Each structure stands twice: as structure tokens, then as C-alpha cells.
Amino acid sequence: MQNRNQLYINGQWVTPSGRNTIDVINASTEEVMATIPDGDENDAHAAVAAARAAFDGWSATPPAARADYLRKIHEGLKARSQELAEVIAGEVGMPVKLSAAIQVGSPVANFGYYAKLAGEFEWEEVTGHSRVVREAVGVAVCITPWNYPLHQIAAKVAAAMAAGCTVVLKPSEVAPLNAFILAEVIDAAGVPPGVFNLVSGTGPVVGEALVRHADVDMVSFTGSTRAGKRISEVAAATVKRVALELGGKSASVILDDADLGAAVKGTVNACFLNSGQTCSAHTRMLVPESRYEEAAAIAAEVAAKFTVGDPFGGTAKLGPLVSAAQRDRVRDYIRKGIEEGAEVLCGGPDAPADLPKGYYVQPTVFGRVKPDSTIAQEEIFGPVLSIITYKDEDEAVRIANGTLYGLAGGVWAGSDERAQQVARRLRTGQVDINGGAFNLFAPFGGYKQSGRGREMGKYGMEEFLEYKSLQFKP
Ligand code: NAD
Q: Where are the membrane-spanning stretches (predicted)?
């Protein structure tokens, strides 16, 4: 991967204001993959100025013409899919085959979807003596994390551009290389200057300069609840619209009549995907007290099959964690779980054997976890599953809802009808019914401290739209 020493602003690759750079580290080799500019306030201001200047033209461009550009971006990304999968396998650590399907397939499809939606959306409607017009919010700053980096970028950038917003993207400094490829694709698609701008750097410096800027109308953020709170505070000074996709501590509720084998296996998979670095990971498995021993044995057996190793090697199911800091944090949580008295059914805090390089941890399953313990309350963001028992359905719902978060969850039962009844009692934005899966067209977002607003589908584009009422004489 070549070094990246320029930012993409106003339709051009430009030299950043300062000389500082950030190393992007390969999670499995611990080597530097490339360096990127550590942008500063001047870069943020230049990008916002370009986006502001482009806004009137882009928002007035007919949606069908905006759709044509999005279609070209979709095609351009598709053509570079393999390269993107390899880059993300390097910077994030997800095995390359899985990366191709999940980290790349979904965002590429999303650009295609928003192209279609822009062409089909009902941009106006009449109610009584008013015509209600949907208009772009304005300049949108999109700030994204590292765990599904291109997916989170596409969910924001494609929706914002389809809506008629102009965009400044600040990708994660931990996994930014995919965003530079996207900028090249957008440039090659001939998107007018200033419609899409890319600045790289750290959150507290370039990120906050963007959030603070008076010419920015909206911030769409995905990341930790801690940073989301800070962004909300900074954005409040100029009353910006803020959409937040934050952390989670989701529960998989297994009811007494569920197919236990399928439910436990499905939960372990939903917890360990991307080495547990998934905001909607099912990190708490709730099982009836009477079925604990059986569930614990199945979980340990399934988890033991999660081979850990080189993301480019072809056989490992799990790669390393994204960084040394993340690995250390996860191991600390595993030690904390042991200290708090949970049973280790599989895994543990030690490094996995025979992997001298790379930020690997052992997939770990804890049994008999107390619902109020640290590992059952805090987001670990690693392959760590906590099994918690409950006496009856009411208690299961109480435990599932008993964290600060409300992002996702799952319910397993003898029938979809019964599972749905319990799902409706969960205070979360999405619930998988008997192994149901993520849907690109359904709204995705959190209740409580998991965030505000929704991404994906038409709901995601609506976040970037204002309502305007044209009032006629009655
Ligand atoms: P993070 O909050 O550290 O960083 C996310 C992004 O915000 C990065 O680009 C970072 O540079 C920027 N940032 C940090 N502080 C900032 C500030 N003060 N002002 C402006 N920008 C700032 O999160 P992360 O470690 O990259 O990602 C992991 C977190 O993201 C987890 O908590 C996870 O649950 C969450 N997440 C949520 C969703 C969701 O859809 N709800 C999806 C993925 C990840």
C-alpha cells in the first residue's frame, strides 16, 4: 500500500496544512502499512469551505443525476473490491474472504441502493393546503470508526450524497486506507468538486474542528458513546443536527422452548464475528436456569472451533484485534471477569499459542456471569461472551434491558410468534428473531445511550433531509 500524503478537498488531492503523519498498522504483522496525513484545523476549514461552496449546485442537481454519480461510484468500488478486501483485512484484521463479503460487499451494494433510492424517492407530498418538500440538510460531516470502516462510511456518504448534502468525511485514523480508495473512486466518477471531501487525522483535533465549524449543518457520527457525548456537547453550540450510532451490549435471549443447539451456535457466531468488534454483537447470552449446563457445554464446544490466526492464511475464522490497545483492553476485561467470579468455560487472558506477532486474543466464554458485573455491563469489543441465567421471561427481559445501551439483540424461541412478543419488550433498535440477520434496507440504530437516529435504507437518507412546508391559501 502506498503512503498517502494528501487530502481530497474540492475535487483535488491537496497537500495538508501540517507535516505530521499517522502510521496505519497491519493488525496481524504489527508492521506499518502506510502513513496518512494528520490533518489539522486548517484542513478542516478548507474542506468545509469546499463543501459549502458546492452545496447549492449539488442540492439543486436533479436526484436522477445524483443517482448517476452514485451508480458510477458503485461500479468503481465493485471494480476495486478485491483490493479493498485486502486493505481492510490488513488494517482491521478480519480474514480476507469474510472481509470481501462483509466489509466490502455490503458497502458496495449500499452505493447501488442509494442510487436507486434517489431516483425513486417521493421528494414532495401534499397535505391539506400545504406542499411538503424534502430538502438536503446542508453540509454533512461524517465521522466513522474502524471496525467496519467502509460499511460505516457508505451508510453515511451514499445516503448524504443521495439526499443532496455535500460531505466532509473524517474516517477512523486506525483504519483509514479504504477511505482513500473511496476518494479515488469518487474522483474517477467525475463527482463535482466539493461534493465529497476527505480529511484524515485524529478525533480531538481535526474531528472536533469539523464538529465545531459554524458552516457545518449536520454531524453524522459512528463510534464510542464517550466520543458521541463529546460531539453532542461541541455541536450544541451551533445547534447542529447530530446523528449518533454508538456502542452496545446486546443480549441474545434464549427462551425455554428454543432449539438450544441452533440458538447457542447462532449467539456465539453473533458475538465473535470480526473478533467481537461489532457494535451490535450479541455479547450476553441469557439462558433459562434449568438449561444452563447444557447451554454452557454447547457454547464451549462451538467457541473452541473458532480458530484464530492469519487473516490472509485462508483457514482462520478469527483474525487479530485491530490494535495493541484494543488487545490489551480486551485481556484486561477477561482478567476482570475472572476476578469478579465468572467461570471460564473456554479461552482466557493469555495470548493464543504460536502467534508471536499480531494483536490476537483467545475467544473466551464466561459462564454464570452476574448481570450487574463489569463484563456484563460494559462494551468489551472483543470475542468475549457472557452467559447469564434467568428464572422466568420477565426476568430475562429485565436483564436484557438492564444496561445503558439499547442497540441490538436477539430472541430465540419455539416459534417466531413467541420470539416476537419478547422482542417487542426489548428497548433496542433491532432484534434478530430466531437467527434473523442484518438487512441493508431496514433502519439500524440505537435506543438509550446507543445513539440517536437511524441509518440504512430510506430511513438513513431521511436523516440527511429537512422538511419544508410551502403554505398556500386554504
Ligand atoms: P471512537 O469513538 O474512538 O472513534 C470513532 C471516530 O470518532 C474516529 O474517527 C475518531 O477519530 C473520532 N473521534 C473521536 N473523538 C472525537 C471527538 N472528540 N470529536 C470528533 N471526532 C472524534 O470509536 P472507535 O474506537 O473508532 O470505534 C469503536 C466504537 O464504535 C465502539 O464503541 C462501537 O460500539 C462503536 N460503533 C457503533 C456502531 C453503531 O452503528 N452503533 C457501529 C460501529 C461501531
A: none
pLDDT of residue 405: 98
The closest-lying atom of ligand 1 relative to the alpha carbon of residue 170 is: 9
Using DSSP, state whether 405 is helix, strand or coil.
Answer: strand
Spell out which residues line ligand 1, taking CB within 6 angstroms. Answer: 143-147, 152, 170, 172-173, 202-204, 207-208, 211, 222-224, 227, 230-231, 245-248, 279, 379, 381, 407, 446, 450-451
What is the mean pLDDT of the segment spanning 63-75? 98
**Using CA atoms, how far apart are residues 105 and 97, in angstroms rounded to an integer?**
11
Report which ligand 1 atom has the smallest distance to the Cα of 145. 26
Q: What is the CA radius of gyration of the chain?
A: 23
Tens of pLDDT, residues 300-320? 999 999 999 999 998 999 999
Give the Cα-Cα-Cα angle 148, 425, 295 (nearest 5 degrees).
70
- Kind and range of the H or E element at 424? none
The rounded distance, in Å, linking the Cα atoms of 294 and 160 is: 48
**Phi, then psi, of 350 in degrees rounded to 5:** -75, 155
Look at residues 154, 200, 181 and name the one whose alpha carbon lies nearest to residue 47.
Answer: 200
Question: Which three-class secondary structure state does DSSP give residue 182?
Answer: helix
Crossing angle between the packed helical segments 63-79 and 149-163, to the nearest 10 degrees: 160
Which three cell numbers mark 426? 426489548
Per-residue pLDDT for 2 more than 80? no
At 1, is the pLDDT very low, low, confident or very high (cuts 50, 70, 90)? low
3-state secondary structure string, 280-309? CCEEEEEEEHHHHHHHHHHHHHHHHCCCEC
Helix (H, G, I), strand (E, B) or coil at 232: helix
Output the pLDDT for position 314. Answer: 82
Strand boundaries in 381-425, DSSP class E: 384-390, 405-406, 409-412
CB 266 within 8 A of CB 380: no
Distance CA 167, CA 413 (A): 44
pTM: 0.98
Q: Which of 42-46, 281-285, 353-357, 465-469 has the lowest mean pLDDT?
A: 353-357
Burial of 64 (0-12, 13-18, 19+ CB in 10 A): exposed
- Tell me, what DSSP letter sits at residue 455? B
**Which residues are catalytically annotated?**
245
